[in-house]
Amino acid sequence: MKVIIADQINEKGIKELEDVADVVVNTSITQEELIKEIKDFDAIIVRSRTKVTRAVIEAAEKLKIIARAGVGVDNVDMAAATEKGIMVVNAPESTSITVAEHTMGLIMALIRKISIADKSVKEGRWEKSKFMGIELNGKTLGIIGLGRIGTQVSIRAKAFGMEILVYDPYVTEEAGAEIGVRVVDLEYLLKNSDVMTIHVPLTPETKHLISKKEFEMMKENAFIVNCARGGIINEDDLYEALKNNIIGGAGLDVFETEPPKDSPLLTLDNIVVTPHIAASTKEAQRDAAIIVANEVKKVFMGEAPKNVLNMPVLDPETFHAIKPYLKLSEKLANFLIQAAKGNITEVNITYCGELADFPRVDVISRTILKETLNSILTEPVNMINAPTIAKNRGIVITESKRSEAEGYKSLIKIEIKSDEGELSIEGNATREPRIVRIDKYWVNVKPEGTMVIARYKDIPGSIGTIGTKLGEHGINIAKMQVGRQAPSEEAVMVLTVDQKVPVDVIDEIRALEHVYDAVYVQL
User: Which intervals hold domain ACT (predicted)?
Assistant: First the structure.
């Protein structure tokens, strides 16, 4: 076996591979050279410099695995790798401790006023009384998002003598109790925490999760830290909260715009900022190299790697058979997770018609779980670990098969159950991915673009009022599909629109007479 290491990684990762493979290190290789030489290699390891493009992948004749010694894989053409049956792996766990430690560092800098005290002394002042701090011992830490990093933060905070509150819709009270934290709702966490730290992904649901209303719920001397993603905190509202002493202070490693040029936050003394370096340590880079080296070794030894980001390797015949339904399942899961409400408790998948006899439909199920969980969790979920993560989160997964497909050759049905109700969707991929049913209503919708889904009473004027409301906000309707069972009863309407739909517009549609509910989906 032969491996090319195209970017600089820690020497320990290279040594791990030398026992099982012929290792070539070329950290200055160009795209043109890589395209020419990749045909000779079974594996490639990169960081961020080297781009593993479609052209590189198509030139590969023996490539089995692409390994990214880090977390993000923006420099790898995932679609091209999947099409060719090449696994893509990364090292998500490599930064968990590093980011957790940086989080604690920002917390300490805030509560002990280390940054402004340092500046004061260097400027020739000795202002001891000005920098009175507080202890962490006996205080309450609120963790928003209990993935790998949030869990590591909780371990370190407990060592400081802190009580831990957690808000994570996908962690049960029982699971929290097992690691010594108390799972609560967001409002309780905000009102009762002395320090808060954020460890969730940036999604439409978490965009500006912490804004004016949330700051006003916090204690007057509370601190908030964000080492996750910029945009989760509304920076304009944070500035007002800090400037007017509504909260005690903030620590940011991430910003909505990076670098945060001309941000008014940088003029304040009660904020500590760093340039998105929470994951930047020598140890994290060492661990990333070792992790991906071991992933490559597993593949060479015929074992399953842990951190696969795309589908497992399939034989060409099987891949050709299920490929249309992999794309469909991604679309259905993304639609459903955006349209569903509440905390997910069950995911039920049914394969209907000819699809029930397809080989390896488990790959489709894992794709559905991966897409569903990646939308709500910070930790990367892949087709290998999706069932385990779902189980650990208390989500029940069922898979069934049915010979009847109700007029179609094949259908996939996905049903999500939550603490706020149920929602199901069915799709077909005979020619192209189509949504054919939402709950009990038959439709025929191409799952792409921006969509508004409304439930309403099917009486004259209902459709017009919804369209008028969108028009009032300059939102143009491109396509419309209506599903109903009987006149004058409940119906569902799917509108494909040309513009993004703000949350307040959706709220206005929900408030219309004869409209029962409305949601916004972006595919």
Answer: 451-523
